[in-house]
Design a protein that fits this description.
single chain; 212 residues; alpha/beta; Rossmann fold; 5 strands
């Protein structure tokens, strides 16, 4: 298994890169997708969220009302910390289970993690950063996701800085150009990934104090 980290700031286009890598043959382990799966009705994470935040975060369909939950924790550090304590350990366990399933293969496995700088992983064969000027990211978030400029800037500010992400990159994909240009860059990144040596047997764990 070749294990590669993929990250990028909100609005940078990481999801588009992840989809293209999957089309090349990568096995993508997407932290955001896992979060959504674990927050489905019937899952323990869903039950724990409802217990902590109340029935107002449940939509009429019975599913989690993500907008209501986001509004509940926005600007409330204690509520956000409680949500993270519910979600992050469960997501981490599921990600490790999926990594373990791939260890004996020759696949290129991509860990798609928005907060990879904040929560680094051990033994990655390489790290790809999708890079975009934060102001351009704000424009895209407003145009494509309906955020206000203030909301977009607030979310960007809560993540690692552009400089911090670039400092951990082994390969940078600049997403300031056209879709064709992005596809060309992803193709080059894919060829680089395939050339990397395989990961160590315990690669993929979240870095702890004992690893430093």
């Amino acid at each position: 298994m070749i294990l590669v980290g993929l990250t990028g700031g909100i609005g940078a286009g990481k999801s588009a890169v992840s989809l293209q890598l999957a089309s090349h043959g990568a096995i993508v382990i997407d932290a955001d997708v896992i979060v959504r799966e674990l927050q489905l009705p019937g899952q323990q994470v869903f039950a724990d969220i409802v217990q902590r935040f109340g029935p107002e975060v449940v939509a009429p369909s019975g599913h989690l009302d993500r907008a209501a939950l986001a509004a509940r924790v926005f600007g409330d550090a204690e509520a956000l910390a409680d949500l993270n304590r519910i979600v992050h350990p469960a997501v981490g366990r599921e990600m490790m289970r999926r990594i373990d399933d791939q260890r004996s293969t020759t696949n290129v496995v991509v860990l798609d993690v928005p907060l990879l700088v904040e929560n680094p992983r051990t033994g990655l064969c390489g790290t790809v950063v999708v890079d975009l000027d934060p102001e351009v990211a704000v424009e895209r978030l407003v145009a494509q996701r309906g955020y206000t400029g203030e909301e977009a800037r607030s979310r960007i500010a809560r993540q690692a800085s552009r400089k911090a992400r670039r400092s951990v990159a082994d390969w940078i994909i600049d997403n300031s150009g056209s879709r064709l240009d992005l596809a060309r860059q992803v193709g080059l990144a894919w060829r680089w990934m395939c050339s990397l040596p395989p990961a160590d047997a315990d690669a993929g764990r979240v870095v702890t104090a004992s690893d430093s």
